[in-house]
Structure formats: C-alpha cells, structure tokens
Amino acid sequence: MSEISRSSYVVRNYRSDDFESYVRLNLEVAHLAQTERLASAQLIVERLSRPNFYPEQHLFVVETAGSIVGYLEVTPELKIGRVILDCLVHPKHRRRGLATTLLARAMHATSESGARVAHVNILQDNPGAANLLSKLGFALVRRFLELSLDLSGIDFPDTDHWSSSCCHLKRGEEEKLARIQNLAFTGTWGYNPNTPDEIAYLITLADPEDVILICEDGEPIGYCWTRIEFAEGEGKGRIYMTGVHPRHRGRGVGKGVLLAGLRYLAGKKLKSVDLTVDSENTVACALYQSLGFKVQTTSLWYEKSLQ
User: Fold this and answer.
1) For 9, 39, 112, 211, which has the most beta carbons within 10 A of its beta carbon?
2) What is the pLDDT of residues 192-214, one digit of tens each?
3) pTM
4) Which long-range contacts (CB under 8 A, 24 or more apart) does 63-69 make?
5) Strand, coil or helix: 250
6) What's residue 229's pLDDT?
C-alpha cells in the first residue's frame, strides 16, 4: 500500500468552507519558497472567481487533521481542447504520493470533458516535478522565459513614431480589446481565445488605463496590457500581453506599443517590470532583449494526451 492510503490524508473536491485553509496554505508556501505565487488573499480570490472556473468542480484538495495541505487545480480551455493542471503540496507533506494521487484524480475527472490534452507548467529547476510528470506519461513540449527589466536603466526616445497614435482602453471597449487580442494570437501555441466577458472580468481587477492601444482609422492595430503586482507591499510592473494585428506586423508597431507600456509603468514609479515569453517566439525575444530585458528563470510545459 502507498503511504497515502495508510494515512489520514483525504483527497476530495474543494468546498466553500475550505477558503481560509486554502489561503493559509498558499501564503505559507509562498513565504517558505520566497516566491510570489498567489502571495496574497486578494490574488487567490481573483483566481477562484475567474469566468468558467468553478472551484467545487475544478479544484481538488488534500486534507489532513482539518487543514488543507495540498491541491490540484484544473483550468479548462476547451476552445483549444486542453486543460491546465496546477498542483501544490506543502513542503512538509511532500514525497508521500499526494501529487501523484491528485494528478490521477484530476486526469480521471477531465477524461470526459472533451479536452484532448492536459498541460502542466513547472519551473526548470524543479527536477522532482519533471521526473514525476515523465513517469506519469507527460512529455516536455515547450519552454517559456521569464524576463525582467530594470526600468531605471532604460532610455526612452524623445520622439516615437507611434506615440501620437497611442491611447488607453476605456470601460465598455472590452470587445475591441478581445478582437485585437484574438487576431494577434489565435493559432499560437497555448492561446485560448478570450471573450469580451472574460476581458471585462480581468479589467475589473485593475484599471482599463493599464491597457495601451495603438490605433489607425479608429481601430486598434496593436496593444500592450500592463499590470501592477504587489508583493510584501512593493509594486512591480508586468507586461501581461502585447500583440499586433497580423496585417500590421513589420511596421514597428510592436516596439512602439511596448515602449508606451514601459513608459506608463515607469510613470508609476516602479523599479522593474517582468514578462513571460515563449522561447520559440524569436521575434518577440529579440525585441525584448534589444530593450534590455534579461532572462531570470525558465518554465517548462509538459503535455499528456487524454484521448
């Protein structure tokens, strides 16, 4: 028998009364690992409240002695035929088969969802997770880079060809943003097209001005979606997404709207800005590196067929 089968651990679906224990687990692990992973109760509330995500259905927890010590979250992205699995187990309860049991439970639960594949994202310096995923039949399919830029070290040009064409998103323009975003990214690896309702939810969490658009003839041809994230009271900028209409690529729109986003974040007195990029997106990688972004970490995407 495995250790988990002999123990007092119980694997079950999340319940609303688990919230405080679930928050406590995330905050404690974030502190122990010195990471910003769901490092505030507000971030956790936002994640559990996402459109098309139902915690009682999509979140599995491990409980022992009345406390949640691990969980696995299933994020369905059925427009592109996948589910994303995200697993966390408290360090004191690892190496007891909990992650394996959670993954098996999630795979069983998603087998009838219509998804074709399951994806898991882990940090490159997590060989234990990589070995477990390989044993469970997952294969490495993609590498993403986490880049960071010191905003105090960037020299913004005095003039920019696109600066006069930039504007900020306004409330009620969610459909406009959804349209340019989907045009820019549909068909790229791992992109799940957004609806205006999903865009509206994300916008309510911040400020529509965080999204900068470049427009021609009243229509956006490029955008830069920025965010300000807080950890331990200190703000840090993030380029959440930046994209260009396929018909307008090669004109410098991407660099122009990215510079506009960086100027916006620098104006907020932030010290640095982070972003994540697919290592196979060589055009974007070259642009970011030309502006001084440096690689901080690498994350790996693993995939397993569900059919």
Assistant:
1) 211
2) 999 899 999 988 888 899 999 99
3) 0.90
4) 63/9, 63/10, 63/12, 63/18, 63/21, 64/7, 64/8, 64/9, 64/10, 64/93, 65/8, 66/21, 67/21, 67/24, 67/25, 68/18, 68/21, 68/22, 68/24, 68/25, 69/9, 69/25, 69/93, 69/98
5) coil
6) 79
Sort residue 190 into left (φ over 0), alpha (ψ -120 to 50) or beta.
Answer: left
Phi/psi of residue 280, nearest 5 degrees: -85, -5
Are 261 and 242 in contact by the 8 Å Cβ rule? The answer is yes
Tokens 């679906």 correspond to: 13
**What's the confidence (pLDDT) of residue 299?**
96
User: What structural domains and CATH numbers belong to the chain?
Assistant: 3-115 (3.40.630.30), 147-300 (3.40.630.30)
Is 44's pLDDT higher than 70? yes
Tokens representing 76 are 């369905």
CA distances from 91 to 61, 76, 95, 132, 195 (A): 15, 27, 9, 16, 37
